[in-house]
Automatic annotation (TrEMBL):
The keyword NADP does not apply. Keywords: Membrane, Transmembrane, Transmembrane helix. It comes from the Bacteria. The chain crosses the membrane at residues 53-70, 76-96, 103-124, 130-156. Residues 1-44 are annotated as: Disordered. This is Integral membrane protein. Residues 7-30 have a biased composition (Gly residues). Residues 31-40 have a biased composition (Low complexity). Coiled coil: none annotated. Signal peptide: none annotated.
Length: 170
């Protein structure tokens, strides 16, 4: 006896008459993107609001200020000052990523930090004044700040993507 419905005929492949859903689709029948009523909040695709733009602007300014303070502190007290300057940069980048919940929260203060360090502070004035000496501490501050920005951006990206913590495979 036939009921008139076949598994692969006309009304969807699952025989229920509705569209076929996959587990990876997240409830959206097309399987592409977020559900219709919910905006994507992972990575750089968070909704743009005036508050979020203001927060990003504050993070950019904080990145410049932390770079200025770190430049002065790392040279003044060599081992402790360098560690304090790097802790300040890492704290700003991680705090920005945590406060916004996006990858941009770590990248925007990192961009302000890089702008201040490489463009504004690395210029040698005609009088011979400069803020970065040619010592090991300056190079460790430059490399450590870049590494801190990359680590914090990677952690923010993994958290936004929903990657679970722990071992792979069990």
């Amino acid at each position: 006896m036939s009921t008139g419905k076949s598994g692969a005929a006309g009304n969807g492949a699952n025989g229920t008459g509705g569209p076929r859903r996959s587990r990876a689709g997240g409830g959206n029948p097309s399987g592409a993107g977020p559900s219709p009523g919910r905006p994507a909040v992972n990575g750089m695709s968070a909704p743009v609001t005036p508050g979020r733009v203001g927060l990003y602007l504050l993070l950019l300014i904080a990145g410049v200020l932390v770079a200025l303070a770190g430049t002065l502190v790392q040279a003044a007290w060599f081992p402790g000052g360098l560690l304090l300057a790097l802790a300040g940069t890492g704290g700003l980048f991680y705090g920005g990523a945590t406060a916004t919940g996006t990858l941009a929260g770590a990248l925007i203060p990192g961009a302000g930090w890089l702008l201040a360090v490489f463009v504004l502070l690395s210029q040698v004035r005609p009088e011979g004044d400069f803020l970065f000496g040619a010592g090991t501490s300056s190079y460790l501050f430059l490399a450590g700040g870049i590494v801190a920005a990359v680590i914090c951006a990677t952690v923010a990206q993994r958290r936004a993507a929903g990657v679970p913590h722990g071992r792979v495979g069990g």
